[in-house]
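Objective 1.3, modelling of assemblies. Example input:
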Amino acid sequence: MKRRDLFKAAAAVAGTSALARPALAQSTPSITWRLASSYPKSLDTLYGACTVFSSAVSEATDGKFKIQVFAAGEIVPALQVADAVGAGTVEMGQTASYFYIGKDTAFAFGTALPWGLNSRQQSAWLYRAGGLDLLNEFYARHGLYGLPLGNTGTQMGGWFRREIRNRADLSGLKMRIGGLGGNVLQKLGVVPQQIGAGDIYPALEKGTIDAAEFVGPYDDEKLGLAKIAPYYHYPAFWEGGAELSLFISLAKWNELPSSYQSIVRTAAQATGHDMQARYDALNPQALRRVVAAGAQLKPLPLDVLKASYKISHDMYREMSEKNPSFKKIYDHQRAFQKDSQTWVAISDLNYDYLVSTAIQQKWEND
Amino acid sequence: MKRRDLFKAAAAVAGTSALARPALAQSTPSITWRLASSYPKSLDTLYGACTVFSSAVSEATDGKFKIQVFAAGEIVPALQVADAVGAGTVEMGQTASYFYIGKDTAFAFGTALPWGLNSRQQSAWLYRAGGLDLLNEFYARHGLYGLPLGNTGTQMGGWFRREIRNRADLSGLKMRIGGLGGNVLQKLGVVPQQIGAGDIYPALEKGTIDAAEFVGPYDDEKLGLAKIAPYYHYPAFWEGGAELSLFISLAKWNELPSSYQSIVRTAAQATGHDMQARYDALNPQALRRVVAAGAQLKPLPLDVLKASYKISHDMYREMSEKNPSFKKIYDHQRAFQKDSQTWVAISDLNYDYLVSTAIQQKWEND
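Predicted structure (tokens):
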């Protein structure tokens, strides 16, 4: 946790940029950084986490450490945030690390793997089981220092024009879904499509696509899909708990005074906690509204779930064979997951199940 | 979220103490506060949250805002922390608000109610659904400003010398359990006992008591009860997600510069996130160890769970009739819980159940 050594090491490094050098000279320098988000302002939970974070840093430093937040596309395209940060074009970026699996499949772990960790497990693994150290060892090779910046919780499986009753219903289905989730569904007959959020509605309306996944009720509601693709399947087994990442240029990070590094780490963790709380407060209300607007809640069929689990784990075996970085992190995370799930099953999962049952069956009247 | 107005208001208040007045004079004054914990150092997750918090505040202020942490009994007895903070004897305390239900039953909400919110729901309710504002309106009448400081997650129901197979097995059972959980179990025939943690082992060994609840595997392991009371029942329906509280003297809080207020709020939220992560990382390993040491994992019987749910809600009705503060907060929290649980059931609960099933049934081999 002590970054003073890193700071000293950084101070000793030749070629630190002239721009950042003042940070070394005093413990509370006035600096301004830029943070590029992969999300538009309209996604107020995701983009909003950036402003919560920058406010916390500014307030903690009496306005001396300013972080200017830019929405997707303003200064960096949505899917190039990690590249821009790694190159030092911007000092910071908020993004989903799994956008970059094309560079290296190990970028998946910072966000979510199909059938991977839930929100609390991801936090525990990252912060207290060695996960974040493993990721930063990997990120350093891309010029990045990473911190978790909040989780969405389990997402919805998406909107479908026709109900999915079994595995056969996926055959030939054109679905807006990316990443590893798309790879898994492809092996079940789905034809994954890459479509920007703004184009989902017309594509579904015209029938260019048959289904689309996005996030959960609160974000999905903005797309207005309940009327044109009313079957709202759950859960997104490919995003059981999707974590956002704060990427920081490793060179710039090393130049920060230790007090500012501490403020950034603490603010990122607090912001992460806040983002999950915000989703957990907003999703229940949004779920009621989308159901009122016509959404029909449907579980994904068991044969789809089981097949996707096997396909996912076959895929991880292949990726581990091809990529030692992937294997090293995967083995660590998978061992954690198995261990954790035994405890979850008798604690929170069991309790949540009982509370849901009690409310549904009105045990208070028995 | 802006505390500048509060700060201005505080600055205008007559009679601020001479000791704290320098805080008003400059934006980054050097001050030292004392934080009394209700927990001993041996409980390194609970007590440890205080040192994580004080380190974050110190690092963020370059050592100018020092918070000295004292374990239970060092300067304040464990169960008088809120009183000491309210009286201004110490500036801060870490405690469980439900220790103080003897003063006012509304103190229960800051920690947990039997059959109440889980960890993420408690955070969402407090931070993003208005819960914390309601609590602080109530705490202000006791001279306190409160912030959440981390959750344990769902706890274990405790250690029993004989297995509990049905409701009748609780009759006359002497059990170490306090608070509202004790009140509920009392109506099921249990004789609640107040015993310090250090006295649990000898009391169970001699048969002075028949059962004892504490926290979860990681903390419980230290008591070494697996051999003498091997039936380890779950879950603690009275602590589905127990939140710790950081209580701050309201008068001292109002005197803090806004940058320090912001640092305290952010550090408390980050610390809370860290404490849950720590429990989630440590409990799975500890569970394996206590099982290896002889613990037998047993669910609480359904008739006990159902009866306790009805008794709890009858109790809340009575408390609401007697105490308007309780009623106001209860109605708000209960509405949130019902709304939230509908969403939880199709998102995280559903996903967690599927992952547990998949791991147990080895779907990867199907």
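The domain at 3-151+240-281 of chain B is CATH 3.40.190.170 (D-Maltodextrin-Binding Protein; domain 2).
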